[in-house]
């Protein structure tokens, strides 16, 4: 489904702990992919029906890329800017842009399920 290796560049100022930073970014990229493709809280007319981790859809490890190459942009003249949640934010937009490039359809609601892609006109 995916290219075997993803490449992600990250600029977060002074890098204090490169190994920890890479692991943090990698986890956030996988989590952001899960949110963009699978995760959605379900409701009925009265309640939230997504009430446990057994039935809540998430990215399975077999669906994750084999490797994520993290390119760190070290800017020692700046203070550390953080790299946790900020690395999650652009993932859905990147996937939406890839879908647009492949299909000409702009999706604006996650998760980008096959049913939503089909309903959008593909």
Question: Average pLDDT value?
Answer: 88
Number of DSSP E strands:
2
Count of helical stretches:
3
Question: How would you name the oligomeric state of the polypeptide chains in this document?
Answer: single chain
Gyration radius, rounded: 17 Å
Strand proportion, as a percent range, falls in: 5-15%
Largest beta sheet: strand ordering: 1-2
> How far apart, in Å, are the first and last alpha carbons?
18 Å
Residue share in helix? 25-40%
Shape: globular
- The SS-based structural class is alpha+beta
Poorly predicted regions are none
For the sheet with most strands, the description reads: 2 strands, parallel
N-to-C series of helices and strands: EHEHH
What are the salient characteristics of this protein?
122 residues, globular, alpha+beta, two-stranded parallel ribbon, 2 strands, 3 helices
């Amino acid at each position: 489904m995916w290219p075997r290796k993803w490449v992600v560049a990250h600029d977060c100022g002074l890098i204090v702990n490169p190994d920890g930073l890479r692991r943090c970014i990698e986890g956030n990229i996988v989590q952001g992919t899960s949110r963009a493709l699978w995760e959605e809280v379900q409701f009925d007319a009265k309640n939230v029906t997504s009430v446990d981790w057994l039935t809540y859809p998430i990215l399975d490890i077999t669906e994750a890329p084999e490797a994520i190459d993290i390119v760190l942009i070290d800017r020692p003249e700046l203070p550390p800017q953080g790299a946790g949640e900020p690395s999650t934010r652009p993932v859905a937009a990147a996937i939406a842009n890839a879908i647009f490039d492949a299909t000409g359809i702009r999706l604006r609601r996650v998760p980008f399920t096959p049913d939503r892609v089909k309903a959008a006109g593909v």
